[in-house]
Amino acid sequence: MEKKFTHSPFTFLRYSKMQHMKKINTRAKHSIRYIMVLVFSLFLSGCGFSLPKKQESDTLKISLIAAKDINLNEKGEASPLSIAIYQLKVVDNFENSDFFSIADSTNTALKEEYSRIYEGILKPGETRKVSVSPDKEAVALGITAAYREIDKADWSEIIPLEEKDKKKSWWRKIKIMPGDTVVFSVHFNTLAISIDEAD
Q: Mapped to the 3 state alphabet, what secondary structure does the chain carry?
């Protein structure tokens, strides 16, 4: 006679409990993995593992030196002088433009070739150190001074940022020098501008 085996209620309960525990273990494993990934991500961010920052432009230290007799008025007295520094992508148009076209940005073609990166007012006899960061595309700096007798003055000067052979700019070679080292000096004389490069 064939015997039939039937599962008791206790067997079914044990089986259900085992299945339930498997589900719990699976969920626990997923939770642990998620927590580990989260903790690892926080650890990386805390340790400074981030995307590299965009390289900043090289900074130039410039000494602005005003003569004691700059910008003489009707009485022959020295007066403050408004000056500006421009970064130039092209030199020709800047050199061939008049002062007011540059200062007022009325020359449309010129506006696309230059941008002002510094402006200030120098007192007679004042010396001021400034820092400017020309873009990588800049091939020269343009210096202007708003002399009272603008028609009689040599009111602009060009400082090339590239050697003639297009190799590394002379001023970039000075990056190894201390941070407060002046790369060149701009002299604002009675009616003219002159440039002294660093040795």
A: CCCCCCCCHHHHHHHHHHHHHHHHHHHHHHHHHHHHHHHHHHHHHHCCCCCCCCCCCCCEEEEEEECCCCCCCCCCCCCCEEEEEEEECCCHHHHHCCHHHHHCCCCHHHHCCEEEEEEEEECCCCEEEEEECCCCCCCEEEEEECCCCCCCCECEEEEECCCCCCCCCCCHHHHHCCCCCCCEEEEECCCEEEEEECC
Residues 107-156 have pLDDT tens digits of 676 778 999 999 999 999 999 999 999 998 999 999 999 999 999 999 99
What the block records as the tokens of 134 is 């020309």
Which superfamily is assigned to 60-197 in CATH?
A: Type VI secretion system, lipoprotein SciN (2.60.40.4150)
Cα 82 from chain centroid (whole Å): 25
Do 93 and 110 touch, CB atoms closer than 8 A? yes
